[in-house]
């Protein structure tokens, strides 16, 4: 990176932050690098929206400093109100805190600014589902897949939604299409939910072995193992893995309350302990 190129450092910060989420590197390895790059970008240009967004991502998904992250996203959008990704990411943070109406407004703004982004369209659809606007959310997600048949996020959300609500065959078909695109560690645990719903618990348990296999080439968060144990109904093992996810600073933990697969464990007091560790409060049913 050119030592005086602020936007280059900002892009580097955002790339580092996404690497652990997508299973490329552990957060303890890349998030400090993301922070360093974002701060260097701001030293060069303290009016750069992308730099504030890069810093916000670290504050949110690694530091779990929700208020600081929100302020950084607001500064990003103040610097550039037309920053579509900034509206998307800020909307994701708001949704994680249960502020779904505000979140949906941010996602709609992002979609107006970047109408061809299938990621933004997919995230909007997922939050419409969480807000109880199910038909609107499903329509949004299906339209996204019609726009781009390989829209990974939208397919993943559709598979999750249908499996959780008991539409097993529909969910299984969406999951097949999702995994054909990418057997990402954050997607693979859904196979366990599918196998359990289809009466194949032994096959569901083998998903743990699949994650072990994937971990030879990609970083796999203990959050993903916890999700499999939730599907298996082994809550003790699930919470043991969630605690390990806290120790590894898994960025997936910021999505605890928006994870549709965790309904069966939210009444367990240990769930509140994990929320507290991440700085979240319960809002999801």
Brief account:
With 285 residues, this protein is mostly helical. It is built from 15 helices and no strands.
State mean pLDDT (0 to 100 scale). Answer: 96
Overall number of strands: 0
Q: Helix count, per DSSP?
A: 15
Order of helices and strands: HHHHHHHHHHHHHHH
* Helicity level: 55-70%
The secondary-structure class comes to: mainly alpha
Instruction: Give the C-alpha Rg.
Output: 18 Å
What report would you give on this structure?
This protein is mostly helical and 285 residues long. The protein has three domains: 1-79, Tetratricopeptide repeat domain (Serine Threonine Protein Phosphatase 5, Tetratricopeptide repeat); 82-164, Serine Threonine Protein Phosphatase 5, Tetratricopeptide repeat (Alpha Horseshoe), CATH 1.25.40; 183-285. 69% of the residues lie in helices and 0% in strands. It contains 15 helices and no strands. It has helices at residues 6-21, 27-44, 49-61, 66-79, 84-96, 100-113, 118-130, 134-147, 152-164, 168-181, 190-197, 201-214, 222-232, 235-247, 269-278. Helix 3 (49-61) runs antiparallel to helix 4, helix 6 runs antiparallel to helix 7 (118-130) and helix 7 packs antiparallel against helix 8 (134-147). The longest helix is centred in the first third of the chain and has 18 residues, at 27-44. The mean pLDDT is 96.
């Amino acid at each position: 990176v050119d030592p005086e190129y602020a936007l280059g450092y900002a892009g580097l910060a955002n790339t580092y932050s996404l690497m652990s989420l997508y299973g490329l590197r552990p957060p303890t390895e890349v998030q400090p690098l993301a922070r360093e790059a974002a701060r260097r970008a701001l030293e060069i240009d303290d009016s750069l929206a992308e730099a504030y967004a890069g810093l916000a991502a670290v504050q949110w998904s690694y530091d779990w400093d929700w208020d600081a992250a929100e302020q950084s996203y607001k500064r990003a959008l103040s610097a550039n109100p037309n920053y579509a990704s900034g509206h998307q990411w800020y909307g994701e943070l708001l949704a994680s805190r249960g502020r779904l109406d505000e979140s949906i407004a941010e996602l709609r703004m992002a979609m107006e600014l970047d109408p061809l982004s299938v990621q933004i369209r997919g995230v909007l659809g997922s939050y419409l589902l969480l807000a109880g606007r199910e038909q609107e959310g499903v329509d949004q997600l299906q339209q996204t897949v019609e726009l781009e048949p390989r829209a990974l996020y939208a397919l993943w959300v559709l598979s999750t939604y249908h499996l959780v609500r008991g539409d097993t065959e529909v969910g299984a078909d969406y999951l097949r299409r999702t995994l054909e695109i990418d057997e990402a560690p954050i997607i693979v645990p859904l196979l366990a939910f599918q196998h359990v719903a289809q009466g194949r618990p032994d096959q569901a348990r083998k998903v743990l072995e699949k994650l072990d296999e994937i971990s030879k080439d990609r970083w796999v968060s203990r959050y993903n193992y916890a999700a499999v144990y939730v599907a298996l109904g082994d809550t003790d093992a699930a919470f043991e893995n969630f605690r390990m996810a806290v120790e590894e600073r898994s960025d997936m933990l910021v999505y605890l309350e928006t994870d549709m697969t965790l309904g069966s464990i939210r009444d367990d007091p240990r769930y509140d302990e994990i929320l507290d560790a991440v700085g979240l409060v319960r809002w999801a049913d």
